[in-house]
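Internal ticket - ligand job 420, adenosine-5'-triphosphate:
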Amino acid sequence: MISIPKGTKDVLPSQAYKWHYIEDCARRTAEQFNIFEVRTPVFEHTELFARGVGDTTDIVNKEMYTFLDKGGRSVTLKPEGTAGVARMFIENGLASSPLPMKAFYITPCFRYERPQAGRLRQFHQFGVEIYGSAAPAADAEAICAASTFLKKLGITNTELAINSIGCKSCRAQYNAALREYFRPHLAEMCPTCNERFNKNPLRMLDCKEEACKKIASGAPKIIDYLCPDCAAHFEAVKAMLDAQGIDYIVDPGIVRGLDYYTRTVFEFVSTAIGAQGTVCAGGRYDGLIAELGGPSTPAVGFAAGLERLLLLMENTGVAFPAPPVPAIYLAGMDSQTRAKAFALTGELREAGVPAECDLMERSLKAQLKYADKSGAKYVAVIGSDELAEGAVNVKKMSDGSTDKVPFEGLINYITSQGGN
Ligand code: ATP
Ligand code: MG
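stdout (structure tokens):
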């Protein structure tokens, strides 16, 4: 037997309703915030991610699904959603459309990682990007949208942690302070951190090696190095969150895994799903569009990992709305009555009523067992008497009561009972 590739997951028919619910909450959140959907290809030129995500990140260094296509071009399955949206924005000249441009996506992402709970090689993100505003209100809006999404899902037990990682000018001073701090410890730190020391010391704060983490915990905090503009921006974002009643903590340890972030960064973290607790993460990335060759455009956004959200909801007993069930199951006995059941099922469906009948040539007993398992709200058995009479006893499964209903009145009966 051929098995599923490591780090990927099937969605079984019995589980799909949970995905629909999560996606539906994402779409309804977007609608409330006047955020429109965009769809970009699953693969892009490798260069887009190398430049867009940043070549000192884990994603670009270790995790990308990169291959040569038959034309010899290097392409990469998207490891995240932002770079593709940025490319779309530039390529379609959307900087001259009404700004801010507010876009969302629901997309599979691919990262070659060590699979574990909440860490997959193919996973899914709901992401939001707001392009064109440098104002603190845009940061606050992105955080509010993420918070609204989580609330809509029924998730109440995450913590929002925010930080500011400053701009180019404060970062220069901070990088110098970091290098000064890390220099005496370099021998104890991992090879990757040693590389980061030269290229991008900020990334050393995001290392997952225990030894490095311990050293990093004593590093100077960026928050103490913010320039007056960045400090004022951060204060304004916090004030807007306060005004919206959104709780947060300031965590100076958050730097995020992508190179393009500036100023505000944030994470929604849960303690209920083990080590991979970050269910949603984002921040401001004012440098990305220009870095990719577009007109300098400030931007802020977030992405939520849908598998982690699903895990969190399941682990903490968040209720999903019940999956859809057939309104009515029509059983038949012989070829004639089965044909009638099939025809009536078709008419009901035509009228928008979810209806079911037998496709397996099962006995009546087996049909009724199947109907019961399917959760059908009503069940009707068409025999030769029913066929002759042109009417059928419709049984309401919740209380066992029955009503005699003429065939031509079935649609009305079911819809008026609220059965569909
Ligand atoms: P982590 O520190 O957990 O590796 P990250 O910084 O790489 O996360 P982002 O690139 O910010 O994550 O992606 C946004 C969100 O996507 C994460 O918060 C998480 O919920 C989800 N996510 C990231 N990588 C994976 C993965 N391999 N499997 C499942 N979900 C993921
Ligand atoms: Mg990662």
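Auto-summary: The two ends are 40 Å apart (CA to CA). The first helix runs from residue 16 to 32.
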